[in-house]
Amino acid sequence: MTATDTGVGAATRERLMVAAERLFAEHGFAGVSLRAIIGDAQVNLAAIHYHYPGKEDLLAAIIDQYISRYEELDKQLSTPGITSRQKIETIINRYSNLCDQNKICIIGSVCSDYNTMPENVKTKLSQLIEMVLSMVEKVLQQGRRNGEFIFSETARTKSLMIMTNLAAGVQLARITGEKDYRAICKNLITQITP
Q1: Which long-range contacts (C-beta less than 8 Å, at least 24 apart) are formed by 92-96?
Q2: Residue 105: which region, alpha, beta or left (left: phi > 0; alpha: psi -120 to 50)?
Q3: What's the rounded Cα separation, in Å, for the pair 159 and 140?
Q4: What does each of the 194 residues of the chain score in pLDDT, given as a tens digit?
Q5: Is residue 92 within 8 Å of 185, Cβ to Cβ?
Q6: What's the burial of 45, exposed, middle or buried (CB within 10 Å: 0-12/13-18/19+)?
Q7: Quick one: angle between helices 155-176 and 84-100, nearest 10?
Q8: Which DSSP letter does residue 4 get?
């Protein structure tokens, strides 16, 4: 029986992913060493190499987790009876939860290192970003069709504006405070509602 067959292997993988995600959010991809990850996760060097050959593999696994979470969110938002406003508020609340925990999203935390990342990680990150933007765009299109939302831009442009405001707002909240972030969120809703 190998470590991956036991709860010990799964627990080690989980500790590594939690530590790496926290450190990437605090220092970016380039600013985090494998040694820092294993120290934070309290595992030995062999454990990280057993589960993830390099830190880019760890980041790829974290991004895969985010993709799964957003696939679940998309299914949740497809439930009949949820208004478009409730859907956009649910998306905003994901970022508000990050703000409440003094965290930033994985996209915001590693984008500054995008140009130096391996191609497989760039591909996964692009996939995640497109998934989120498409989900927001779909909600905006539905809201405009049913009269809940009004905006002059294309739904794609408006989704870019909303998501960049949320991502930057969470980062700025670390400096300017939660009150400013809440004002951004309120304004995003005001901009699209009649």
Answers
A1: 92/166, 92/185, 92/188, 92/189, 95/166, 95/167, 95/169, 95/170, 95/185, 96/181, 96/182, 96/185
A2: beta
A3: 7
A4: 344 444 558 889 999 999 999 998 888 888 899 999 999 999 988 888 888 888 899 999 999 999 999 999 999 999 999 999 999 999 999 999 888 888 878 888 888 888 988 899 999 999 999 999 999 999 999 999 999 999 999 999 999 999 999 999 998 998 998 999 999 999 999 999 99
A5: yes
A6: exposed
A7: 30
A8: G
Q: What is the Cα–Cα distance from 33 to 28, expressed in whole angstroms?
A: 10
| Structure-derived torsion over alpha carbons of residues 42, 45, 51, 52, reported in degrees to the nearest 10 | 110
* Short-list 133, 50, 58, CA closest to 91: 133
Q: Which two tokens stand for residue 159?
A: 């989704």
Chain position carrying tokens 């930033």: 104
Domains and CATH numbers, the chain: 56-192 (1.10.357.10)
